[in-house]
Amino acid sequence: MSTETEEVITVEKAGREDIPDVCLILEGSYPYVQDESSDWTHALICSLPDFKFHLYLLLTPGIPKKNAYRVPENVVGRTEHMIGELPPGVHKIKHMHNFPARLEEPLQNLQHRKGGLEDVKKLLEALTPHRDKLGRHILLDAWKSWNMLLHMYQAAQPKASFSAYFRSWRTMAGDLYSVLLGPLPKAGVYHAASTGYAGLFLARTALETGRPALLTEYGVYADERRVETAMAELLYDIQSDNPADENLSELPRDLWVRTFSSYARACYQSCAEIITRFEANQASQLKDDAPAGKLRVIPNGIDRERFSALEQRNEGRPPTVALIGPVAPIKDIKTFIRSVDVLRRLTPELSAWVLGPAGEDPEYFEECLQLAYSLNLEGVLKFKDRVNVEKYPAMIDVVVLTSISEAQPSVILEAGAAGVPCVATDVGCCRELIMGAGTEEPKLGPGGGITPLADPVATAQACFKLIDDKARHKRCSQALKTRVERYYSKKDHDRAYRELYHFYLKQPTSPQGAFERWPGLDLTYVS
């Protein structure tokens, strides 16, 4: 028997008995936060009871430590690690006079250039021998670290505000070091649910363990960070040292965007497979240099039998539209509120709902309430914190999404399975879900309407066409229901991940780590 064959058997046995099969790497979500990404994670674990999972939870201050889900029994371990949390560490280590110099180049690449896996590897090579001794004193507070920061500032944009650069650099460096120095549990396969810090940790697992690394992006993390920074007026109160230069105040924003793009690049380069839920996401992944040969689409799936059995009842209630999702800026609740104001003039008996948690951004929620009040919508629009998915199809004529960013929203799949047409902005997979993919044969027709971003009039008009024309509503209802049944089955989704895990658990461990191993691996996957 060959050495490789023996190794495969050992790894498979260890994955089944001694260590978890899969380490799921999650950032600030499951099981403490209830959202679409957490719903997907919970459903994946529950649907694969024959696999043992370990949860690696990257958390930030303020995350509640109370489970929002009943964690399944096949979750056999949990590691919690706070992003940015570093121990004090020692003040000095012998024979480390060139230590900051070894860190500066890869840090410079990750923060200011197109960094990637090679830079993460160099950082690990410098940090790992001293892992038990390093902390804030040496990495952030020592004079040599201060001098390194000054060198990087001079190289990046010396005319920009130093205080703004200093705050950004210190936060990002602390976050980076904490992820690279945190605990690393054993597993047969490592699987991250996003890039960002979870993707950075995934790259580390591939380099340090040589085990296969898998990524599933619900939405493209780097793009979401770009959207967030574009929405923000400033990340900090920035006062440029040279007010005449209008571009200087953009430095901290650009610094964060470039850094997260570098983390995404490192993650992509470390992966055996890069999975997304719809093909349009792959353009963004390729933009951050994801290897085309590693890309794969596994559409999200829902229990269509559960939702298709729910009946819509129109008798005895007014025409009703609803936005289902958290009250958060990225969902652009304010555009929905303004669209309700327009729609009620076309349909005076209108009833409207915002169905979703309001605690994610209390300040934004208060702004939404004030907007609704200023438009005199008290008798028309209501907010409800929790949604009973078994009841809402019977209550709603049109589901609305006014989001400025989405991936593959499960609310459209659920509504479609229950025969409720949808109106959504042209983001993520919404057009493909509602209007059909270009490859759809035979063409099923629209399942609702697609509108531009931040356009309450267009949103109201699209809803009115469905409410006012019962024949159109019926056609859209049937088209969306058929599309979901045909292309978005939870059984197909679960089977794909079961086969994926089985395949990679059988792969031998690379003694040199994934950096040397995976570039030469044939990544073609045959189901």
What's the quick description here?
This protein is α/β, with parallel strands linked by helices and 527 residues long. 47% of the residues lie in helices and 12% in strands.
Description:
The protein has helices at 3-18, 36-47, 99-112, 117-127, 136-141, 143-156, 162-181, 196-209, 221-231, 251-270, 281-287, 304-308, 333-346, 362-374, 392-395, 410-417, 430-435, 456-468, 470-487, 490-505, 514-517, and strands spanning 22-27, 53-59, 75-82, 189-192, 213-217, 273-276, 295-297, 320-324, 351-355, 381-384, 398-401, 422-425, 448-451. The strands form two sheets. A seven-stranded parallel beta sheet has the order 3-2-1-4-5-6-7. Strands 10-9-8-11-12-13 form a six-stranded parallel beta sheet, with helices on both faces. It starts with a helix and ends in a 10-residue tail after the last helix. The chain has two domains: 3-87 and 135-301 and 495-520, Glycogen Phosphorylase B (Rossmann fold, 3-Layer(aba) Sandwich); 304-487, Rossmann fold (3-Layer(aba) Sandwich). The longest helix has 20 residues, at 162-181. The radius of gyration is 25 Å and the shape is globular. It contains 21 helices and 13 strands. With 527 residues, the protein is an alpha/beta fold. Helices cover 47% and strands 12% of the residues.
Features:
21 helices; 2 domains; disordered N terminus; Rossmann fold; disordered C terminus; 527 residues; alpha/beta; 47% helix; six-stranded parallel sheet; seven-stranded parallel sheet
